[in-house]
Amino acid sequence: EMEADGTIWMNGEYVDWEDATVHVLSHGMHYGTGIFEGVRAYDTEEGTAIFRWEEHLDRFYDSAKPYDMDIEFSREELTEATLEIVRRNDLDSAYVRPLAYYGYDSLGVSPGDCPTDVTIAAWPWGAYLGEEALKNGIEVKVSSWRKHSSSQIPTNAKTTGLYVNSLLAGEEARRNGFEEAIVLNKEGNVAEGPGENIFLVRDDEIYTPGLSESILDGITRDTVITLAEERGYTVHDNVSISRGELHTADELFFTGSAAEVTPIRQVDNVEVGEGGRGPVTEELQTAFFDLVERRTDDHEEWFTYV
Ligand code: PMP
User: Fold this and answer.
1) What is the pLDDT of residues 215-265, one digit of tens each?
2) E strands, the chain, in order
3) 255 lines ligand 1 (CB under 6 A)
4) Total number of domains in the chain
5) Ligand 1: which residue has its CA nearest to atom 4?
């Protein structure tokens, strides 16, 4: 459940949590015409820091492009708004959610003169799949739902409407006793999780589906690829991964701003490797948390201090 308290930034103004409301006839409510980001701010030894804010902001503006959505706030304005809501809400660590959507004017599918409303909220959010998941991994199910193909909808744009597919896949998995889903693309290859990218380890090399596999170009994906390469691993990040390879992998893990680095210990009731958090996953997960909590001074360029 959400914090129901604090300040939310809405179209240039700081408003009380309960006043951050939307008209029921807003375009985005009816047609899923919103784009958003999910960003984390970490409680670091040098204060609260937003991780890879610039890259999230890049993707935010890029996501708006296919929908011809005009975000009339500058990078500087959105950055200041974000820093300010983290401060005003007194957050040491936070999940930050920028959102832009076609608002209230008319309800043809064509957005016509609908405004592009922009909001930013922040609240505390612990481990997305639970603390236990970070340590011991999760049990996942390959979904019977396929991911939309990038030829049907721009899957590289983080669009609100796309998450109907994520909900179907995730809830199907949970109804069947699993913790999360893996979603195949239209070709039947491994795409990603409902809100995570996926990595596979085999014989000490690392594999992750390429950007042409109808995935979101995850920022944590990029972080983990960078950390792995810096530690001498070969990373194959432009490959197709077949469903069967999930079962023969030594290790599997999910990445995401919310999910961070979450090991996968079982796929469709079959153990992955030894069936826990594998050694490569653990090494990269440790490197990730050491980085984001600033126990190292690597990649200072990835941090925006509040
Ligand atoms: N794929 C999907 C579908 C997602 O929703 C997310 C979360 N934004 C990711 C991958 C991971 O992306 P990131 O690491 O940028 O959070």
Assistant:
1) 999 999 999 999 999 999 999 999 999 999 999 999 999 999 999 999 999
2) 7-10, 13-16, 34-36, 39-44, 47-51, 94-102, 116-123, 138-142, 180-184, 190-192, 197-202, 205-209, 235-239, 251-256, 260-267, 270-271, 303-305
3) yes
4) 2
5) 195
